[in-house]
Automatic annotation (TrEMBL):
Pfam families noted in UniProt: CM_2
Keyword Isomerase included in the entry's annotation: yes
EC class: isomerase
PANTHER family (alphabetical): CHORISMATE MUTASE
PROSITE patterns, alphabetized: CHORISMATE_MUT_2
UniProt-recorded Gene Ontology molecular function terms: chorismate mutase activity
Domain Chorismate mutase: 6-97
Organism: Bradyrhizobium japonicum
Identification of the protein by name: chorismate mutase
Enzyme Commission numbers on file: 5.4.99.5
Length: 103
């Protein structure tokens, strides 16, 4: 194995460790986000509010697309990710509403 091969293997391993750490952080952040949105779902069900808030979703998406562009991330990817997360949140809110007898 040449020095160049060893350097490549070391760089690859280091970058993959960083990716693994970032993936773990994303999972933890998503878990915390869903703890918050679950609590919001319970509040909404208790107060008879709709699961969806289109104005909030639109404002949040606009903010996230700006942040993505500023960070060098594809804003369209951010839109897709946001849509996925919002769908899951709405599903969870609807389940809470149903379980509470409000839906």
């Amino acid at each position: 194995m040449t020095d160049d091969d060893q350097g490549f293997a070391g760089d690859l391993a280091r970058l993959r460790r960083s990716i693994d750490n970032l993936d773990a952080a994303m999972v933890h952040l998503l878990a915390e986000r869903f703890r918050c949105t679950d609590a919001i779902g319970e509040l909404k069900a208790r107060h008879g509010l709709e699961s969806r808030d289109p104005r909030r979703e639109a404002a949040q998406l606009k903010r996230l697309r700006i942040l993505a562009a500023q960070s060098g991330l594809d804003p369209d990817f951010t839109r897709k990710l946001h849509a996925l997360v919002v769908r899951e949140v709405i599903t969870n809110h609807e389940a809470v509403k149903f379980e509470s007898g409000a839906g």
